[in-house]
Known about the structure:
The structure is a single chain. By secondary structure, this protein is mainly β. It contains no helices and 9 strands. It has strands at about 15-20, 25-30, 35-40, 55-65, 65-75, 85, 105, 125-130, 130-135. The strands form 3 sheets. It has a 4-stranded antiparallel beta sheet with strand order 1-2-3-7, with no helix packed on it. A 3-stranded antiparallel beta sheet has the order 4-5-6, with no helix packed on it. Strand 1 and strand 2 (about 25-30) form a beta hairpin. The chain is elongated. The protein starts with 16 loop residues before the first strand and ends with a strand.
Amino acid sequence: MSRHVVCSADELPPGSRRTAFVDGREIALFNVDGRLHALLNRCPHGGARICTGVVTGIAQSSGPGDYRLERHGEFLRCPWHGWEFELATGQSWCDPRTTRLRSYDVKREPGASLVKGPYVAERFPVVIENDYVVVETR
C-alpha cells in the first residue's frame, strides 16, 4: 500500500465530493458530515462515474405499508441504474454476494506528519541587478 496526498482538507469540506487520480485510477472522495470515504469511481455494474451518484440512506420495513429511511448518508446510489453501495465498505446492496465497489482507506492528517518525497525540482539562483531579473545557471 502506498500513500498519496490528494488535496488539502479545506478542498473537501463536509457535504462535498471530488475526484482524484492516483496510480492511473480515478478515485471518488466524499465528505459526509466529516466522515471521509474513498471509492473507485466506476460502478462495477455498468461503469458509471459513481461520484455523481446520490448520497442517501437505506429503506427499511417491518411489513407492508411500513417503511422508513434509515442510516442517512451511509449509502451511495449509482446515477445510471440505482444500484446502492455502502460508502464505508463499497458493499453492494443489490448483489452483495458477487459485487462490490472497491474502497480505499482515507484519512485527514496534519501537514507536518507528511513525509517529503525524494523528488526535488532543479533550482537556479535569481538576483536583481540594476532593475533586471537575472537567473544564473551553471
